[in-house]
Amino acid sequence: MLKFSEKEYDRLKKESSEIRLYITRLIGFIITIAGLSSYFIESIMKSNNDDPLREMLVVFISMLVITYLFVIIWYKFKSHNRFNGYIQLLMQEVDFICLNKLTEKEKNNKSYIANYKKLVNRSKKTRELINKNNLSTWEFVMSRLNSSGKLKKNKNDKEKEKVAKSLKKAKYVFQLPDDYEHSFICDCENLDIKFSNELAFDQYGKRKSFKEYTNKDKIDKRYVVNGWFYPKIITWIAFITIILFYLIFLFIHFSNYNDFASWENLSDFNYWIPVIILFGASFIFLYWIYYFILKIDDIISGAFSIEGYCWRFFIFRVQLLNSKGIIPIYFSRAFIRFFKSKLIIQHLEEPKMLNDVIKVINSRRKEANKKKENEKEFKDKIETIETDVWKRYKEHIKGLKQIENEFLREIHDAVNIVVKSKHEIPIEEVD
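User: That's the sequence. What structure does it adopt?
Assistant: Structure tokens below.
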């Protein structure tokens, strides 16, 4: 985190803590309502005046009040994630470059991306002056987010293009491990835009169909960041309470009002009261499934997660820092993995790549057999890799998919070694 953001960080942490306390209080209200409702239902059943309609009304009103309270809790979950998403963004800012110390050529051709390590200390006095400031950006960035359309339901390719256009104009750098350089990628100037389009935007965009809800992971699980699991636990506990109330409601209703075949009752208003309440209780139950249960993963690792809000805030934070003469440098594990994947893809189609990979596999198998590190020895050396297997491996890498097949993983490890050797990167472990 940068020094000029420390006070804002403390303020946001305090706001986040207050939201968690508020959520705890609301959960206490829900528990109290559930307990009182159970008491009233039991009292009505034990009384001489057992009235099923009153029992149904108590259950229905309890379900309604719990739902109202949980709508507020749901909003507070998102508020918590907004604050912590911005906090995470602040935490990922590890350094910066003074914009006014760059030449016009360096600004236009984005050479500062490849040379950021040299440019960081170009002006120590300017850096010291910037660090003495107390920069507060939360309100501005939040207002930009609300007015940008990035939270609207129908997020589409036009929105993606709009974000990509803004990213192209913005000036920022993603930090890489010491042994890697941005220049390893031929088109390193546009890699951050590809990262936004292919990974961050798709992973944390809103899901628009049931199929997208059931197939949540669009990318390799290594890129998915699971945040605060508390909402999932609380949501399921509250939903189980709603299920129990709904089952009690159905039992009371169908034990006392099951004469649907009698046409004579249709003109009687009293006949419709329990039917209307039944529809109301059923609507609440379905509302829970659609609005809370199906969308809980958006709070944990999707559009409204901590990571999701972090990437939503990213472009607005960068634009504001650029206006203050700052080019921020970010550290992101997701970007590093993305960089390494793109580096591999860049070499996959080379004529000698397959032969080099086979040589590495054979060498590793031979070495492992000598050391006898495994209970069973590796198979004999391979002469070639089948076309379909090699094709499937390339599809996995290009699609940023999880590699689960044992042989594909062996190929991937060998590819990593070959690529690292091409750029003289020390091979300590395969990532």
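Residues 112 and 118 are 9 Å apart (CA to CA).
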